[in-house]
Amino acid sequence: MEFEDRCHKVQEPKFDCLLFDLDDTLYPLSSGIASHVKKNIGDYMVEKLGIEESKIENLGNLLYKNYGTTMAGLRAIGYSFDYDEYHSFVHGRLPYENIKPDPVLKHILKNLRIRKLVSSSRPESKPISHVSCNRVLVLNWHASLQIFTNGDKDHAVRALKRLGLEDCFEGIICFETLNPPCPSPPCDGEASIFDIAGHFSMPGAAADELPRTPVLCKPNVDAMEEALRIANVNPHKAVRHSRHS
Q1: Is the peptide bond before 219 cis (omega within 30 degrees of 0)?
Q2: CA angle in degrees (0–180, nearest 5) for 188-181-153
């Protein structure tokens, strides 16, 4: 009887939500999108924020390393700008035609939505054995598939359409999901800008002495927690897939 009960007990799925990064994860780095994004960010810093071109590479690397995105770092050190304008400048001119449809990935993602679970269905003529537990049944398990990206929604939608994956995900957790619109007050000038390069040139400089950013983004733990809250899932039953995983 104890064996029968064990066989009839359906194993609960380990995960009920899969969070997927978008850029350089669902489409390859070889698409060249990342290099275009980097160039566009640099151009924005020069053309819109008045930063010297010679400082762009080092500043961009420091901001990305310490804040997760260049935008988050720019806001932290004192630059103010319109978020929609920034995203339009950075993503609006991308060669989305470089992203090709991926039917194989689509098939994989579609199949992730159903899991086969084993339950007991032993014919009465068969003796009880370990084999009897492997006899049958297919139960549907619906896994929530979500996009979790630091990019804006328009960029995510365009990339997913190019991949042919727009119907594979239940939701898109993106920049706008986690961040309210920026009021974009006028910048007070260089005196109000924190010199992050100068900071790290000092002996013993630490990252925990840096100003905080108002932008919520990966890999910040608060951003992860907020994304899981929005997706309405148990953090212990979610898996995140990204190129850094």
Answers
A1: yes
A2: 130
Question: Contact, 238 vs 231, CB < 8 A?
Answer: yes
Domains (ranges, CATH) in the chain? 1-28+100-179+215-245 (3.40.50.1000), 33-94+181-212 (no CATH)
Q: What pLDDT digit, counting tens, does each position of 89-117 carry?
A: 999 999 999 999 999 999 999 887 544 33
CB-neighbour burial class of residue 142 (10 A; exposed 0-12, middle 13-18, buried 19+): exposed
pLDDT tens for residues 27-58? 999 999 999 999 999 999 999 999 999 999 99
Q: What amino acid is encoded at 124 in this protein?
A: E
User: Are residues 223 and 173 in contact, defined by beta-carbon separation less than 8 angstroms?
Assistant: no
